[in-house]
Amino acid sequence: MIEELRNCQKDGPFRGEECSVCGSRGRLLMKGGEIEGVGRILAGMLRHFPENYGVRMDDHGWVKLYSVATVIRAQKKSFWWLTPFHIEALVRTDPKERYQINDKEEIRATYGHTIPVNLDDLPADDIPEVLYYQTTDEELEFIRETGISPSDKSWVHLSLTPRQAYISGLFHIEAPAVVPVDTKSMIKSGINVYRATSDVFLVDNIPPEFVGEKIAETFEPTPEEAKELSHVRERQERKRQTRSDMEP
């Protein structure tokens, strides 16, 4: 269940029943279903198909915040109340740090793009010496020969820990294979690695010499992660079923 988004007049937006700083209940901004609905629209608009929404995106993925709110209100009448402040509160409290808002009142997705976006303005300092990538056992041999290139996304995504890589992989495959990536040596060779969030990192490609051996350990999702996995898989199955029903 997604927690409500609320705003404390003193301490700003938060998710949950009360402000963790002062204990205030605050003012309700979005219910759980509304957070999910707006989040899906933002993902589509800022990661995948901005042209479907008629927004103007620059080379680095930035879109004017006011235009995002205007488009959502126009396309989804149930969100007639949405303002830039609601979106900013959603971004500031997002535990996965999926979006950024800059001082020009522009918003962008920080990772997960399937469209070409130049993210070389993300921080490239304080990159851990080793990061982790999830793949499949079938692809491991291919990776060892050719390295890692973007597949369904425009950047290669790396995780801070083996566990994070493994759990992230579960959203796409049944049994992820996790390999370490020697980012320290890779950066020394001249390949830039960018910090999208505190635990998601981006790189254009990874030559095979920087890919290590598969990590034998597997990890169990927490109850919250298991619920999210179940929800995502159910949604994916509904989409597959819908496509199947539409086929002649």
Describe it.
The strands form four sheets. The protein has a three-stranded antiparallel β-sheet. It is an alpha+beta fold. The chain has two domains: about 100 residues, Arc Repressor Mutant, subunit A (Orthogonal Bundle); about 80 residues, ADP-ribosylation fold (Alpha-Beta Barrel). The protein is about 35% helix and about 20% strand.
Low-confidence segments? none
Q: Total helix count?
A: 7
Tell me the overall shape: globular
**What would you say the CATH architecture of the largest domain is?**
Orthogonal Bundle
The CATH homologous superfamily of the largest domain is called RNA 2'-phosphotransferase, Tpt1/KptA family, N-terminal domain
Task: State the end-to-end CA separation.
Answer: 37 Å
What's the β-strand tally?
A: 11
Question: Which strand-content bin applies to the residues?
Answer: 15-25%
Instruction: Please write the string of helix (H) and strand (E) elements.
Output: EEEHEHHEEEHEHEHEEH
Q: What structural category arises from helix and sheet content?
A: alpha+beta
Class of the largest domain, according to the CATH hierarchy? Mainly Alpha
The helicity comes to 25-40%
Please tell me how large the radius of gyration is: 20 Å
Strand adjacency order, main sheet: 2-1-3
The description of the largest β-sheet is:
3 strands, antiparallel
The CATH topology of the largest domain is Arc Repressor Mutant, subunit A
| Average pLDDT over all residues | 93
The structural domain count equals 2
Short description:
The protein is an alpha+beta fold and 248 residues long.
